[in-house]
Amino acid sequence: MNNSPRQMKLGAFIYPTGHHVAAWRHPDSQADGGVNFKHYIELAQTAERGLFDMMFLADVLSGVTRQGEPVTTAARDSHFGHFEPLTLLSALAAVTEHLGLVATMTTTYNEPYHVARKFASLDLISGGRSGWNLVTSANTDEALNFSSPAHALHADRYERAREFAHVVQGLWDSWDEDAFTRDKASGLFFDPTKMRTLNHSGKHFSVRGPLNVPRSLQGAPVLVQAGSSDDGKDLAAETAEVVFTAQQKLETAQAFYADVKERAARYGRAPDDIKIMPGVLLIVGRTEEEARAKYQSYQELIHPDVGLMQLSRSAGGDLSGYDLDGPMPLTVDVQGPKSRFALISKLATDEGLTIRQLYMRLAGTRGHWLLVGSPAQIADEFEEWFVKRGADGFNILPALVPTGLNDIVNLLIPELQRRGLFRRAYEGRTLRENLGLRKPSNGWRFAAGTQTQRTA
pLDDT digits over 122-171, tens only? Predict the structure, then answer.
């Protein structure tokens, strides 16, 4: 049993130029960051120098514009034209030693065998440092790239995702760690008694298995989930080991934290089996004044078309026909991220914000918590949320990279370490070891009564 003091976990959620919507226009940004591998090497090695648990990359499977958006507006958005994340993380595995490598891959427009194989491969390449951020596609335009006439409804996407996760986890259990003997003398390459054939047959998938990738050092890639709707929380409680969430206030964060941990108990899981890490956009300065000056310099670069476009996407509906200086409508037809729309609507209602004021507020955060201040001020907020069980750690969104990430590593991390809230050295070599997550035992999912049948 681990009796060491509880310490927070930190992820570095990296966008090519930074999370603020206008970051790419800033003089300190790497404007071609999305396709600049040396830039990503610098970011990954900076995050590792800061002892971050993981580097996290999002993904989207659609092109420049979405239905109804003019190309002239989308052309001002920098969040296009970037590497495919699994390819990028596989390359970054060679230039890092401890940093976890986590990427998004949707269950809506992929097959379980593909996902299981890719992340299992990354896990072997990195020596046990991979993680899969399981999402359902909230972007309706993705359907148009996968021969699908219409985007699946919210409930249907989550039903598919639940079965998808079971199949992937079952495939990751295809082999015992010592199954591949590679015995030249006997001619036996693997021990057939240490192989498990999945033989899954369900509503959405029929997958025989086994996976054609051996088991990794950490047993299986870490499963991450980012949904905060009721369906999302239930899926996380059943399957996830790390949960990314968007929370604005401690009280709502505490409620979410308690809810997910309680749901997990219903699935026979211990509270420490899941690490809950709210997203937070950080702007750190040596003083509060310096940090606020940085934030203002980013805000001044927001183009109105981009601000409205980002708000429409976050809200999951078209807001272009509404008065920018009028109230946020609360009747938008949402088939996108329902939890994010609810959060944005509540913020607009509670503070009486117009659409223009709301998109200026959310330009860099897309609904996540925003902290601007000195290292001590930000550490105070982190400590309160951590101690009062609103979080097990944080998924940090640097507003601008590389300079913003450097500020976090050089200014904030030492303050957290001084307070005993964050590590001074990595605990292990695998992502599971550093997160304090249990290593799954061989074949446990087969014995746990999932929708699969075990045959050797």
Answer: 999 999 999 999 998 877 788 888 888 777 887 889 899 999 999 999 99
pTM over 0.70: yes
Cis bond upstream, residue 402 (ω within 30): yes
**How many helices and strands, by DSSP H and E, does the chain display?**
16, 11
Q: What are phi and psi of 318, to 5 degrees?
A: -80, 120
Tokens of 304: 């109105």
Write the single-letter amino acid at 210. Answer: P
- Record the tokens describing residue 185, joined without a space: 């003398």
CA-to-CA dists, residue 409 to 43, 220, 401, 414, angstroms = 11, 29, 12, 8
What pLDDT score does 137 carry? 86
For the chain, the farthest-separated pair of C-alpha atoms sits apart, in whole angstroms, at: 78
| Residues 6+ away with beta carbon under 8 Å from 75 | 64
Binning pLDDT at 50, 70 and 90, where does residue 447 land? very low
396 φ/ψ angles, rounded to the nearest 5 degrees: -85, 130
b/e per residue 354-385 (b: at least 16 CB within 10 A): bbbebbbbbbbbbbbbbbbbbbebbbeebbeb
| 47 contacts 434 by C-beta, under 8 angstroms | no
Alpha helix ranges (H) inside 352-443: 355-362, 375-387, 403-407, 413-418, 431-435
Tokens representing 364 are 């860099």
